[in-house]
């Protein structure tokens, strides 16, 4: 698979505080990569750099040449909170980037895909947390990205809703043939979703190890082979906290 995103961060600092150092990662077409690490290690900062939202760093972000002419460079972002506009309907939030010129047919299709048909005219206050995050995912897909970046998108929902959203995300990634770069604190989530799990160390954050989860999708959560990967991830995280 060809590389669609290549990120090199020699150093990222906030004042005298170095957050990231000597970080390099690539994302291939249709690949799912999970960033896993202790709080404060720079995972979310790295994601913002990948999105182009933070340009104040030493290094580079290179996207595949065929992304250059695409909207937003072929990249979209889903935040930890849904960040929906409370005065806009579900449909208006999905097509927010285009305002009144939004593609209604495309919005209708996305509503079907995320399971929100019948809620298009509802306001965010009428939605559950899981439903609101479905809207946020649909909004991310509205620009037809090739890469979707997600910053702990399921951390605020209950365990059952989280599993349903994970399965939805996998289905959408396959359907739209897109790559995912996901930040998570949840080991099980990283192994269930990711083709690769990049384990980061404490600040200044760097990538300590790469776990290749060579299990086909869709995966079974009860697959005993995931236990060995989890043991490896736990060991790496324990060492990361030791420094």
TrEMBL record:
<feature type="domain" description="ABC transporter">
    <location>
        <begin position="4"/>
        <end position="227"/>
    </location>
</feature>
<keyword id="KW-0067">ATP-binding</keyword>
<dbReference type="InterPro" id="IPR003593">
    <property type="entry name" value="AAA+_ATPase"/>
</dbReference>
<keyword id="KW-0472">Membrane</keyword>
<dbReference type="GO" id="GO:0005524">
    <property type="term" value="F:ATP binding"/>
</dbReference>
<protein>
    <submittedName>
        <fullName>ABC transporter ATP-binding protein</fullName>
    </submittedName>
</protein>
<comment type="similarity">
    <text>Belongs to the ABC transporter superfamily.</text>
</comment>
<dbReference type="Pfam" id="PF00005">
    <property type="entry name" value="ABC_tran"/>
</dbReference>
<dbReference type="InterPro" id="IPR003439">
    <property type="entry name" value="ABC_transporter-like_ATP-bd"/>
</dbReference>
<keyword id="KW-1003">Cell membrane</keyword>
<dbReference type="InterPro" id="IPR050166">
    <property type="entry name" value="ABC_transporter_ATP-bind"/>
</dbReference>
<dbReference type="InterPro" id="IPR017871">
    <property type="entry name" value="ABC_transporter-like_CS"/>
</dbReference>
<dbReference type="InterPro" id="IPR027417">
    <property type="entry name" value="P-loop_NTPase"/>
</dbReference>
<keyword id="KW-0813">Transport</keyword>
<keyword id="KW-0547">Nucleotide-binding</keyword>
């Amino acid at each position: 698979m060809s590389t669609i995103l290549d990120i090199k961060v020699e150093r990222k600092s906030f004042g005298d505080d170095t957050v990231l150092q000597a970080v390099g990662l690539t994302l291939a077409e249709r690949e799912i990569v999970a960033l896993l690490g202790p709080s404060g290690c720079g995972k979310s900062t790295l994601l913002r750099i990948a999105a182009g939202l933070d340009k104040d760093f030493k290094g580079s972000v290179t996207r595949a040449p065929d992304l250059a002419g695409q909207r937003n460079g072929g990249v979209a972002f889903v935040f930890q909170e849904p960040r929906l506009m409370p005065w806009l309907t579900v449909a208006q939030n999905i097509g927010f980037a285009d305002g009144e010129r939004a593609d209604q047919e495309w919005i209708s299709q996305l509503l079907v895909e995320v399971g929100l048909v019948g809620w298009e005219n509802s306001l965010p206050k009428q939605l559950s947390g899981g439903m609101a995050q479905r809207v946020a995912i649909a909004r991310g897909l509205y620009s037809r990205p090739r890469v979707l970046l997600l910053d702990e998108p399921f951390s605020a929902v209950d365990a059952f809703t989280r599993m349903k959203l994970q399965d939805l995300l996998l289905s959408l990634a396959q359907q739209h043939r897109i790559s995912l770069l996901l930040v998570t604190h949840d080991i099980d989530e990283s192994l269930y979703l990711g083709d690769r799990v990049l384990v980061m160390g404490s600040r200044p954050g760097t990538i300590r190890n790469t776990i290749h989860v060579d299990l086909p999708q869709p995966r079974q959560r009860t697959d005993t082979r995931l236990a060995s990967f989890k043991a490896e991830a736990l060991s790496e995280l324990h060492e990361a906290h030791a420094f």
